[in-house]
Amino acid sequence: MSPPPITIQKILGQNGMLARALKGFEFRPAQLQMALMVAECLQKELPAVIEGGTGTGKTFGYLVPVILGGKKTVISTGTKNLQEQIYLKDLPLLRDATGLEINAMIMKGRRNYLCLNRYHQYFSQTSPLAPGLKETRFRIEKWINKTQFGDRSELAWLADDDVLWDSITSSSDQCLGVECMFLEECFLSKLRNRAARAMIIIVNHYLFFADQKVKKGGFGEIIPRFQVAVFDEAHRLEEIATSYLGDSLSTNQLVELAIDLEKEILEKENKDPSVPDKTKTRMQSAVIRAASEHLWNFFHGGAEKGILDEETLRDLREGPAGEAVKELRHLREDPDLRAFENHTVQTLLARADELGRLLEEILKEKDNRWLNWYERRKKSLLLHSSPLDISERLNELVYKKLKAVIFTSATISTNGNFDYIRSRLGLDDRTLESIYPSHFDFGRQALLYIPRDLPIPSDPNFGQHAAKRIVDILKITRGRGLVLFTSYYNMNIAYRIIRDKIPYPVHKQGDAPRTALLDEFRNDIHSVLLATSSFWQGIDVPGEALSCLIIDKLPFDSPGEPLVAARINVIDRRGGSPFFEYQIPSAIIALKQGLGRLIRNSSDRGILSILDNRIITSRYGKLFMQSLPEMPICHTLSDIGRFFETEKMTKNSKRNS
User: Fold this and answer.
1) Mean predicted confidence (pLDDT) in 324-346
2) What is the dihedral sign for C-alpha 396, 402, 407, 413?
3) Does the fold of domain 442-656 match that of domain 247-387?
4) Residues β-bridged to residue 383
5) Angular region, 200: left φ>0, alpha ψ -120 to 50, beta rest
6) Fewest C-beta atoms under 10 Å: which of 1, 73, 244, 614?
7) What would you measure as the largest C-alpha separation in the chain, in angstroms?
8) pLDDT for the residue numbered 400
9) How do residues 171-192 score in pLDDT, each as one tens digit?
């Protein structure tokens, strides 16, 4: 007689398999309810949008029904950290606790994997006498002989910013495909073959949408076909999908093409003296480099980001962009190069063709559903053509093709509903939805401090007043604070004032790599970390080290951002209210993400301080307040002192008992 089937209740229930297998496992009714809802979604083949508050255990809430459901599923996350947590920690825990056979695979973007062709090419063209290169090559060779997929994350000794990795990995336009002499050993091919056999594939949003766009073109995809998609950290989906469902080109791509072409021609001439002189090709390569520089200079001295209006697009087409397109065309039509019997050269010509086509496409004038814009960085320029509404593309690329799609996040609702996210993602009336609040006791664990006496953020002196108040708060909390800013400007003002006024180490974003800053902050309990937008989400600092979270002002997206301004204009044109339909909901989600850094487990205690008193004085402030967990509110520094005095008394009581 066969054993009874394993059910969701048997795994996640109060006395279930996880409870018996994991020490300290805490039964969470919301987790079980979420898992049952996901199962319903899979069974009925419907979309679902689910908010699981911090501590709900939403990862197990969707993993268990996905595993039991038996459909080939892609789980897409907003960060690599969560991607690796699911693969390296959560799935092994479920496998050990249940005895289920879980066939899963993790996949990252191409640039995370070693390219054997580029690796051998690089070291064949580099002097063996270069300092440290011999030792580096020895270490990589040793790794190549034992690694399964050539994943860069396995090289803990290779610095994040080491330029070597860019030379030995491959983008999609650098890949030689079936013509590569290392095809049978190719790590990416092995990865694809393994993923084709897996039932669960774990990716991130960046790879997911890059791959969907490639699939639409009909070649070069990495992720095999699947039936179900689960988007975790779905609050980031629109931002990432927008960047990948449009078109973008960087001047770095033009420079890389020129460099790769020069290297290939030089290598052929060195190996075969009879190869005709390629002076003309070198000149064309130099012109492409020059055109790239002219593009960057075209925007020099202007704003770092901006919209490309009709006049600017015309000037670009008639100027540096047109110059680049012309040279790319000359390159790909060069009869000597086209006659070159070398697949690498032919691949480079195909790249030139694609870059020329892409540049022309980006600089076309489009209708008001699209935005042409640019970003100027220190050493490069990015040109973009971005969709302002991704719902139509999601329907075409995702909803129509899959049996079920689940969106989940700890912060995806606004004001108690999903109206905003459903409108942005184009989810229809069939969509199942539910909110499972955090089971943490914010009324006991947290205190919300909102000062009444600070100037509003538009006041020119707000930055200085806010910095002085941050000093007052951090003295009471004895450091232990993460201070999140909506701009580098206010962060730098605060840093100059704070660093000499408190007796605790003060770290600032940009002074060291993100991981190093977080490690220092975690390890020194009384330290302080000042940061901007990239630290508002995806960081986990449980315990006493983060007992105080200070947010300088409500995190409204800047109307100076090209995409934000364009979306506001779209809503304006149809007679809607951009502020209430778009800007406020977006800011609420960002604020909830910031708050989520404070209480990470049931033993955490701390204060949340919002220095922007518009949250209690403006008519829209109540929308923010209604979206936050219920917790006591105070307006004086003495209340903060009493909160931490209570914490101190509680600790002493526990020690003495």
Assistant:
1) 79
2) positive
3) no
4) 249, 374
5) beta
6) 1
7) 89
8) 93
9) 877 788 888 889 999 999 999 9
Question: Which residue, 204, 316, 196, is CA-closest to 249?
Answer: 316
> Concatenated DSSP letters for 28-89?
-HHHHHHHHHHHHHHHHT--EEEEE-TTS-HHHHHHHHHHHH-S-EEEEESSHHHHHHIIII
Contact between 251 and 236 under an 8 Å Cβ cutoff? The reply is: no
- Cβ-based neighbour number of residue 200 at 10 Å: 24
Categorise residue 273: left if φ over 0, alpha if ψ from -120 to 50, beta otherwise: alpha
| pLDDT more than 90, % of the chain | 63
- Determine which of 270-274, 537-541, 609-613, 647-651 has the lowest per-residue pLDDT on average: 647-651
H or E element in which residue 405 lies? strand 404-409
Q: pLDDT tens digits, residue range 133-157?
A: 888 888 999 999 999 999 998 998 8
Q: For the chain, what are the domain ranges?
A: 247-387, 442-656
* 3-state SS assignment for residue 128: coil
CB 593 within 8 A of CB 585: no
- Paired with 306 in beta bridges are 374
Return the structure tokens found at 184: 């049978």
Helix axis angle, 462-477 relative to 488-498, nearest 10°? 50
Please, where are the H alpha helices in 499-561?
514-523
480-529 pLDDT per residue, tens: 999 999 999 999 999 999 999 999 999 999 888 887 888 899 899 999 99
pTM: predicted TM-score of the whole model, two decimal places: 0.89
Do residues 167 and 118 touch, judged by C-beta distance below 8 A? yes
Beta carbons of 372 and 363 less than 8 angstroms apart: yes
Q: What does pLDDT average to over the chain?
A: 89
* Mean pLDDT of the region 557-586: 94
What φ, ψ does residue 51 adopt, rounded to 5°? -105, 125
CA pseudo-torsion sign 601, 604, 609, 614:
positive
**Tokens 């000093």 map to which residue?**
471
Instruction: Tell me how crowded residue 562 is: count the other CB atoms within 10 A of its CB.
Output: 20
More confident residue, 128 or 68: 68
CATH superfamily for domain 442-656: P-loop containing nucleotide triphosphate hydrolases (3.40.50.300)
- Rounded to 5°, angle at Cα 356 from 351 and 357: 100
How many secondary structure helices (H) and strands (E) does the chain include? 30, 18
> What mean pLDDT comes out for the span 598-603?
82
CA distance 74 to 77: 10
| Residue 562 CA from chain centroid, whole number | 19
Is residue 424 within 8 Å of 589, Cβ to Cβ?
A: no
pLDDT of residue 218: 44
Cβ–Cβ < 8 Å for 338, 349: yes
Residue entry with tokens 């089937």? 5
CATH architecture of the region 247-387:
Orthogonal Bundle (1.10)
